[in-house]
Amino acid sequence: MISRLGILFMRAISHLPLGVVRAMGAALGAFLYVVVVPRRRIAMRNLELCFPRWTVAQRRRTVRSHFIRFAQAWLDRSWLWHAPADVVRQRLQLAGSVHEIDGDAPVILFVPHFLGLDAGVTAITLLTQRRILGVYTKQSNAIVDEWIFEGRHRFTTDSRAVHRSEGVRDMIAAVRGGAAMYLLPDMNFGAEDSIFVPFYGVQAATVPSLPRFARLCKAKVVPLTTKLTDAGYEVRLHPAWDDYPTSDVAADTALMNKRLEVYIDEMPDQYYWVHKRFKTRPPGEPPVY
To answer: What is the pTM of this model?
Structure first.
């Protein structure tokens, strides 16, 4: 019942002016910053590890801004998934190297966990002709899972989503057949299938799926970043990475993290810091949280 009421609420606010939705998000985010202490501590610890030269005051300002942006991005899903297409189109700016996804050549979209990542899905499916293949983690709540799935695919009939546990062969065939893979490999998925490479100088368990899929699919890697703006979102496609992947999976995965740091440095409050990125430690290392 709570899930259904939450979805009805999102539908109800989807037609409000963007400024009103963002103001609601700012109020909600400020409230969550105060009351959701465990996640606030995780974000503070992540910033301490990644930006050791920052003062405590800098980290607190960034974390507070992060909570506000987090809540705004969540409420933005109301209009992304329920507002008329013309309204959504006006609020999304597709920028950068858009030509990189023209045609049907195999493409892996490297999509870091910036807070507006769902705007990226909507922008690609609404503003381009490119099909996408989403790799997702199933939600424990079936009602919410269905709502998220339908929202992400509202502007496409020929794109698809697969669970991380599904067969790799089908994914490879889909990418070679013209679907751009929407891949988010920058979180901690545990020790299994992960390797340890630096992220802001700290060893982080990282799945090497980006270079592996790029090699198996014979695809170019095109980074996609999303940024909350006053007008909505800027969805930026970056130039395809040259000479990637190589024959060294560990080096390629480390390079992915290194280039991710550059994107984060441009908008640090919009990266997903409430996740325990460094939860899995190398053998013999103590926990950091």
So the answer is: 0.94
